Structures
1.
Amino acid sequence: MPRSGDERSWSRTDRSAHRAAASGCARADDARADADDLRAGDADASVDPADPALLAAADAAVTAAESELIVLSHSIHAEPELAFAEHRSVAKTLAPLRERGFRIEIPVADLDTAFVATFGSGELVVGICAEYDALPEIGHACGHNIIAAAAVGAGLALAEVADRCGLTVKVFGTPAEESGGGKVLMLERGVFDGVAMALMVHPGPLDIVGARSLALADLSVSFHGREAHASAAPEYGRNAGDAATVAQVALGLLRQHLRPGQQLHGIVESGGVAPNIVPGHAELLYYLRADDSASLDDLLQRASACFEAGALATGCTHEIRALAPTYTELTPDSALLCAYREQIIGMGRMPLAPELEAARPLGSTDMGNVTNVIPGIHPVIGIEANGAVTHQREFAAACVTPSADLAVSDGARALARTAIQVAGDQLHRDRLLERSIQRQEEIR
């Protein structure tokens, strides 16, 4: 997950003090609450208890595969691969699914490292999203090895009960979450068509059910000047490096006036080749973030003026390119959140209280785009990180500890149990099916 700049770890005392109530959900007075309200999290919706026999069967499937899932997590972690190049990770993730009889489609969406693994033929299609891309230089410091293994475990668990629950189970292999927007491309190219609910789990320093993310624009800003000898003839040059400097000073001054929830941060990708050559080219890589897409549009307009100022002040030209699709903010489905919260509390986990979740954005994710059109969730499952946070080398090391291994099995069980519980509630089953049919009609 591309990480925001203000993430902090919470102590055990914090976790205990803010342990959530048993479910934190209450069915709306109008049991047929508007589906969009539920999707946006504007209305709570309780979910009927699941059939204990189905939950037991799903749990048993995870238990049977537990050692294999942990090996998978560790193996992906040991060989980190970057966006759209996760070939070994994909092969490892597919192996247990293929062995259990899932129908494999790869590649999909014209992406070599994207796949769909399908089991069953029920009317309600459940999608479980796996991620497996790593970060440059620091490897799996966002714990995508845990995500992939938990997704496989959830898929195997749901396959065990697919016929009895009337499910079609799809495990989606989604590349390039860190940069590239694999899920957005798959969504736009029809891979998620027909899916009634989409679920995944992401590791972090603590359990957060209704995890919040920010909308994101991933930009490259190139400045074009003119080379010249920096000593003998500097007047003939136009310094693209200076253009980048002026732009960054303007962005730094802009920060004082940003709206709440808006963020920007970046690096200098290139700024010249030698001290005695006036730089003819410079490039900035920047992330712009905001609470929602409308606020992101406002920030993009204001930041673009800063980039333009750098070019204007130095006599250079500039161009702004999007390096990946825009990520939208997460809009989780309330019923799925309610069921997931109930399940992990039943496992003995202590999630952050719902009233505190909104204050803790966790960066940005392309799962936001999925939840904007398909009812879904993206909870965080806690691991013992010893004070480390995501995108640190110490967090990467924490992602292959016994605590991380427990997150794999707990995450798999919680996702499977959530899908089973919601699928077994006729009110929400009907709602999800109706929404899926409606979306298919809109696509046509």
Note: Residues 3-23, 27-36, 40-44 have pLDDT under 50 and may be disordered.
2.
Amino acid sequence: MSTSTSTHALHIDWTRCDGRGLCTEILERALTRDDWGYPVATRGLPERRTDAPLREDELEDAEEAVRLCPLAALRLTRVTVPAAAGGARRSGRSA
């Protein structure tokens, strides 16, 4: 029987963001800026650059970044990661 763990991610809504960079200053280990100044995740899958996986010790800073974002372009989400013998699965189903 496999179990799952829950973690948090910071979602960046690029349609709202204007690239001011406050979030990248607050979460400098989780976010960086792209060539146009928009925040992108430093961890995770390249195609999911708008969803930054967060470590437990970054959660408080992420909450602050969400509160301080002038355009409400950030949102905290909860992500469930299955603990399977072959690694995490995207579907969330166990074999």
Note: The first helix runs from residue 22 to 26.
